[in-house]
């Protein structure tokens, strides 16, 4: 099994020592694509897996550094590009992300970067995959594994985030592409008038 970690926003930069890792959840995916969700500290991890998880957690929680969320989907980033007159093409998205990842000194301020799955497979002008570019700078690459928000029929607008049914397969691919943690987002619609 290999880990992809999720750090709740309230704990991202509050780790004081490895004992604080008890609040971290992780998804483990085996070669058989079976997914297991655990919290850190379980005896199911090998020493190597636990060391890798702790190293990732420690790197992502580096004091004085932040996590950049550059995980906009092509649709979301397209609106931003349109606002400045830029065509929303894969090449323009790649070039934009390259500017972010290769900014001189960015590693002095960033400990991790959350990527859109598209970005995991994009390369810099020199041919390096973006996760490798980030890793060489000491920035831990992560991924946004959730898919789209879906409105549940017959629920007056209640929503659910799609992607859990295929998460194991996609996490295996994301890890092979260089991701070492994940951020899962699931927005809820609360209609106060309807109770």
How would you characterize the overall build of this protein?
The protein is an alpha/beta fold. Helices cover 29% and strands 18% of the residues. It has six helices and eight strands. The chain has helices at residues 47-60, 74-83, 90-101, 117-120, 130-136, 167-176; strands at residues 2-6, 25-29, 35-39, 66-70, 110-115, 140-143, 149-151, 159-161. A three-stranded antiparallel β-sheet has the order 1-2-3, with helices on both faces. It has a three-stranded parallel β-sheet with strand order 4-5-6, sandwiched between helices. A two-stranded antiparallel sheet has the order 7-8. Strand 7 (149-151) and strand 8 form a beta hairpin. The termini are far apart.
Topology:
Elements: E1 2-6, E2 25-29, E3 35-39, H1 47-60, E4 66-70, H2 74-83, H3 90-101, E5 110-115, H4 117-120, H5 130-136, E6 140-143, E7 149-151, E8 159-161, H6 167-176
Parallel strand pairs: 4-5, 5-6
Antiparallel strand pairs: 1-2, 2-3, 7-8
Mean pLDDT: 78
Using only CA atoms, what is the Rg?
A: 18 Å
Class computed from helices, strands and strand pairing: alpha/beta
Helix content: 25-40%
DSSP summary: helix tally: 6
Order of strands side by side in the largest beta sheet? 1-2-3
Query: Approximately what portion of the residues adopt beta-strand conformation?
Result: 15-25%
Order of helices and strands: EEEHEHHEHHEEEH
Described by its quaternary structure, the protein is single chain
Biggest β-sheet, characterized? 3 strands, antiparallel
Distance between the termini: 43 Å
Number of beta-strand segments: 8
Tell me the overall shape.
globular
Instruction: Provide the low-confidence segments as ranges.
Output: 1-25, 27-31, 33-38
């Amino acid at each position: 099994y290999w880990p992809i970690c999720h750090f709740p926003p309230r704990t991202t930069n509050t780790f004081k020592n490895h004992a604080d890792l008890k609040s971290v959840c992780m998804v483990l995916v085996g070669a058989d694509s079976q997914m297991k969700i655990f919290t850190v500290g379980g005896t199911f991890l090998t020493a190597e897996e636990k060391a890798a998880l702790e190293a990732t957690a420690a790197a992502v929680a580096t004091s004085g550094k932040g996590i950049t969320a550059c995980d906009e989907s092509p649709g979301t980033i397209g609106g931003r590009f349109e606002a400045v007159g830029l065509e929303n093409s894969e090449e323009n998205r790649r070039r934009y992300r390259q500017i972010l990842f290769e900014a001189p000194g960015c590693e002095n301020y960033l400990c991790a970067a959350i990527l859109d799955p598209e970005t995991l497979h994009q390369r810099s002008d020199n041919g390096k995959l973006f996760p490798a570019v980030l890793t060489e700078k000491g920035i831990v690459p992560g991924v946004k594994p959730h898919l789209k928000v879906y409105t549940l029929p017959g629920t007056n607008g209640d929503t659910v985030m799609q992607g859990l049914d295929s998460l194991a397969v996609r996490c295996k691919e994301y890890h092979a592409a260089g991701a070492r943690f994940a951020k899962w987002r699931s927005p809820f619609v609360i209609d106060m008038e309807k109770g």
